[in-house]
TrEMBL record:
Residues 1-25 form the signal peptide. GO terms for molecular function: metalloendopeptidase activity. Keywords: Signal. CDD domains: LysM (cd00118), M23_peptidase (cd12797). This is LysM peptidoglycan-binding domain-containing protein. It holds the Pfam family Peptidase_M23. InterPro entries: Cell_wall_metabolism_enzyme, Dup_hybrid_motif, LysM, LysM_dom_sf, M23ase_b-sheet_dom. Residues 54-98 form the LysM domain.
C-alpha cells in the first residue's frame, strides 16, 4: 500500500493547524495593580476599578497622590493612616495600608473594609438621658437603664456629601473651564464599572488646558489604563485629572493657572485620540459636568 495518501492527509491537517494559530490575533491579557482592567478593541486597556485589598506595595513612579487617586481616597486620610507627614515622600517597596477595619462598623462586622477617608460609625458623645425601666425589678435584680439620645440621627453619607458639594459655591462653574475643545464621546457614570469622568475627542497634539488654578501633584504614566496622566490639586478638597496625553507640558510641583496648556492630546492607553477628564471631591469621583460651564 502506498503511504502517499496518508502523507497528503497529514500535510493538510498540519496546514490547517498552522493557519488557525496565525489567524489568532488576540492580545495577551493586560494586568493592572488590582487585576480588573477592561480591554478595549485592539487590546488597549481602559480605566480599571480602584485599588482593592487592604494594602498596596509602592511601585516605581508612584506618588501618594497617584495611589490615593487609584484607591478612591484622599491624601490626608491615606497619609494619616500610614503615619506619613508632608511632603508625603514614599519609596518603592513600601507597603501602605489602604483601608481601616473597625469591629464597631457594620462593614467590619460582616468582614468588609471601610475605605480610607470615610467616617467610621462610633458611639455618640452627645448628652444622653438615663431612663429607668418602667417595670419594677424583683429582689436581687438590677434596674435596667436605657440611653435616650437627645440629638437627631446623622444624615446618610450620600446626602451629606451631596449637600457639601452643593454648598461649596466657590468651586462651581464660574471657577472652572473646559480642559479641551471637542465632542464628548463618553459621559460620566455612577455604575461600579462606569466612566468616572468625561471623555472628549480631538486631534493628536491639540492643547489640553488646566481647568482651574492648581498645583501639579502627579505627572507620569505609572497608573495603568490612564496613559500619560496629569493630576492637579486645586485645594484641600478638589483634584482634577487629565489622561491619555501624548506629551506632558508640566512637571510635578509646578503651579498652573486656569487656561494654561499642560499637555498635548493623545491616545496613550486609549482606543483613539481623546482626553479623559475627571474631577475628584475628597477622593471621590464627581460628575465634571456639574462644574464645567455650559457650551
Amino acid at each position: 500500500m502506498s503511504l502517499y495518501p496518508w502523507r497528503k492527509y497529514g500535510v493538510v491537517v498540519l496546514s490547517g493547524l498552522l493557519f488557525a494559530c496565525s489567524a489568532s490575533k488576540t492580545p495577551a491579557p493586560v494586568a493592572s495593580v488590582d487585576g480588573n482592567d477592561r480591554v478595549a478593541s485592539g487590546g488597549i486597556p481602559v480605566r480599571s476599578k480602584t485599588l482593592s485589598g487592604s494594602t498596596y506595595t509602592v511601585q516605581k513612579g508612584d506618588t501618594l497622590y497617584s495611589i490615593a487617586f487609584s484607591a478612591g481616597s484622599n491624601v490626608p486620610a491615606l497619609a494619616s493612616l500610614n503615619g506619613i507627614e508632608a511632603p508625603y515622600n514614599i519609596y518603592p517597596g513600601q507597603k501602605l495600608r489602604l483601608h481601616v477595619f473597625d469591629s464597631q462598623s457594620s462593614g467590619a462586622a460582616s468582614g468588609g473594609a471601610v475605605m480610607v477617608g470615610e467616617p467610621i460609625a462610633r458611639p455618640t458623645t452627645s448628652t444622653t438621658t438615663a431612663v429607668a425601666s418602667t417595670s419594677t425589678p424583683s429582689a436581687g435584680q438590677t434596674t435596667q437603664w436605657v440611653e435616650k439620645k437627645t440629638i437627631a440621627p446623622t444624615p446618610a453619607k450620600e446626602y451629606s456629601d451631596k449637600t457639601a458639594q452643593n454648598n461649596n459655591t466657590s468651586v462651581m462653574s464660574g471657577d472652572w473651564r473646559w480642559p479641551a475643545e471637542g465632542k464628548i464621546v463618553e459621559g460620566f457614570s455612577t455604575a461600579e464599572q462606569g466612566n468616572k469622568g468625561v471623555d472628549i475627542s480631538g486631534k493628536k497634539g491639540q492643547p489640553i488646558y488646566a481647568a482651574r488654578d492648581g498645583k501639579v501633584v502627579y505627572a507620569g504614566s505609572a497608573l495603568r489604563g490612564y496613559g500619560k496622566l496629569i493630576i492637579l490639586k486645586h485645594d484641600e478638597d478638589y483634584l482634577s485629572a487629565y489622561a491619555h496625553n501624548d506629551q506632558l507640558r508640566v512637571t510635578e510641583g509646578q503651579s498652573v493657572k486656569k487656561g494654561m496648556v499642560i499637555a498635548d492630546m493623545g491616545s496613550t492607553d486609549a482606543p483613539d485620540v481623546r482626553l479623559h477628564f475627571e474631577v475628584r471631591y475628597k477622593g471621590k469621583s464627581v460628575n465634571p459636568m456639574s462644574y464645567l460651564p455650559k457650551r
